[in-house]
Amino acid sequence: MAHTHTLSFLGLLALTSACSDSPKKASNSFDRCLASCEANNKNVPGHEWVEKYVDGAGYAAFSACLDEAVKLGTTAARHGCSEKGTQACARACAAD
Hints:
Layout: H1 2-41, H2 51-72, H3 76-79, H4 81-95
């Protein structure tokens, strides 16, 4: 009977560890994606794998921000459109 409890405890411990690692892995994934989205925007070699997120979610967020900036009579730079595009790229990448 003690053997069964040990296995159950180890199983529970494994599940608890897996659950507690998830936010850490998600954060690492987001950080990796963010770094690659930024590097791809600067044409740094080796970050081509993230282009689908740059061209997809990143471009959509940048375009929407640019439209909003024009309506407000400001520039894309002042409105933070590059940052918004890069963040959208990283979020889409990390979610995939």
